[in-house]
Design goal:
single chain; 497 residues; alpha/beta; Spore Coat Polysaccharide Biosynthesis Protein SpsA, Chain A; 2 domains; nine-stranded mixed sheet; eight-stranded mixed sheet; 31% helix
Length: 497
Amino acid sequence: MFLKKVETLEKLLNLRKKDIVTAVGSNGKTTFCLNLCKELKRKKKNIFFTTTVKILPINKKYDFVDITIPDIGNETEEKEREVFSEMEITSFLLNMKKNLNNSNNVYVLGIYDSKIGKITSLSPKILEDISGKCDYMIIEGDGSKMKPLKGWNKTEPVYAKNTTKSVGILPINIIGDKINDVNIHRMKEFLEISGGQKNETLTLNHLYNVIIHKNGLFQYSLGEKILILNCAERDKDKENALNLAKMLKSNINFRDIRIGVTSLKNREYYEIGENSIMEEENKNSFVPKISAIIMASGKSERMGTNKLLLEYRGMTFIENTLEKVLNENFYELVIVISDKKVRKKCQDYIKKSEKDEKKIYIIDNKKSEKGQSESIKIGLKTLGKCDGYMFFSCDQPFLTSDTIKKILQNFKTKGITTPEYNGKRSLPVIFGENFKDELLKLEGDTGGKTVISNHQDKIKIVEIENSDEGKDIDTKEDYDMLKKGEQDVYSRNNNKQ
């Protein structure tokens, strides 16, 4: 997949005359509607812009909006206002033909509520009556309290009966932020559809769930579904948008969905292209075999107890690591342990996961006192021939599957791929097979840092914006703060070190 730039929203949506577009979601709906109105007005089209909920009066803010009230014979001398009353709408419809023939305008339709200072929705009957009387109708179908993401209750979004295109809008730049009350409108509903937890870091999986869930972004949608991933100003945002698009295209129910990647504020629009030249060239390209080594034989001296058996979000640290590793298609996996209880946890989790045990090895480290180098050696000696070895620790609870995938995607044979979390390097790291002999010569508790420092020209750094993912939980204090959900405090304390 690749991004193909398009000049207008009209092209991105594949808009057709008489289309009725309802925009729902968060972070960009109003801007989307107004950008589209502006485009269509330049083409000398008549557009109705309205809402099924509430919108702010806009003609003072956007000089391109032209609201004209026909003369209905009342005593007011006001010829231009922001909204119509129900009575005025009825009169407006009676004079529609004359009015539309005389001008090309964006008509903002609704009922003005002076108490809240907003335009509220017309009746469904009036919406239906006026929908065919203009070239296009643009509707804002829900609200998000100015927050980046939201959950939906059973009463929304609200679609006009004859909507032809349902446009769901989400910010892609929210990835890496926290699930908290600042970012989320209707927290309870959001957690239910996203599968997330409060104070957790937002991932592509959360957005994916929000899109595909029956009570999510496209709940009650009508006509063609179109997804807009907005706020894609950075290369990182565009990359995340492409990865999310790949996830959706693998879902049979969303295989044919139209996806746009946009920066609405900058008026930059991209459509998702498939079968690019690069993809065609890579169809039959070499895919490296990468094996994983989980180093789980440390003594946890600073913790005072075996931290691999400590629980976080209903799982032990070792299970948390296994869940992420087993989710990837590693050629082989070796788990180096030194504790019987850890072994039992591994065996039970592997069995529950129904994975091929023939390619998973649990090996005792009888020389764990010699440091991390022994785990490295045992892992390498156990595994068969492959193209690379990816090393994991078990004390990075914030590490996400998205980050693991990103590191794997950036690996080149005969190289070293290492993540960098806000400028600090940490695990998981992939070493090419050509470094095996050098890794087998390691001594003590230095790990692979020596090999990395000796081959700076072979290193591929993968930048990870969320620094929490690279943090280790080493002490009882670290764990206590983790359990309390005090991630911000934890970050501040570590930055002081």
